[in-house]
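User: I'm putting together notes for a lab meeting next week and I want to include a structural view of one of the chains we've been expressing. I don't have a solved structure, so I'd like a prediction I can at least talk through. The sequence is below, exactly as it appears in our construct file.
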Amino acid sequence: MAIKLTKRKGFNFFRSYYDVYNELETNADKVAFIDALLDRQFLGIKPENLKGMAKFAYISQTNSIDSQVKGYEDKTKTTLTPTQGGIVGGLVTPTEQVEEKEKEKVKEKESKPSLETRSLAFKETLRPFINKYGVDMVKNFYGYWSEPNQTKTKMLFEMQKTWDTSRRLETWSKRESSFNMKQEVKHNNLGI
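Assistant: Thanks for the context. Below is the predicted structure for the 192-residue chain, given as structure tokens.
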């Protein structure tokens, strides 16, 4: 039997499909239902020659099957048509769907500035605060918040749910001054 080529990689197999499948009495009806379901999901072929209980089972699931196919077509901006499936030939590896995802990832990486570029941009956003908070504090703040993650794809400040540099610096300043006060008290208690 020839392999039917398809662009689609997968679909959700709902519990209702399984329930309807189990209600079918003959293996021939079960196979006909599953074949019709798979051909529609992967190849876009609407069943035309289903008969009896297999037809009834398929019709009962048409709404969810068609909405999944439409969702796939809308998301990928492709149309599943019978001309795409059923072609005799070898496997196409990787599938067009996988290739599309890889192209999107490459575009995403190319469009996003490098970590070094983003780090320098972050440093520049801190310059206006040097007069208010001083060079040492802003340096410490930058050193802490520009630390990259293990994969070197994001800095610590980029991983925060919210970020407002002026508020973060204000909080940093308050905490740093209370930290410095505690350090001075410890040193004075030691006689330093």
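A couple of points you could mention at the meeting. Residues 115-189 form one domain. The helical segments are 15-23, 27-43, 52-76, 96-111, 115-126, 130-133, 135-145, 165-189.

User: Perfect, that's what I needed.
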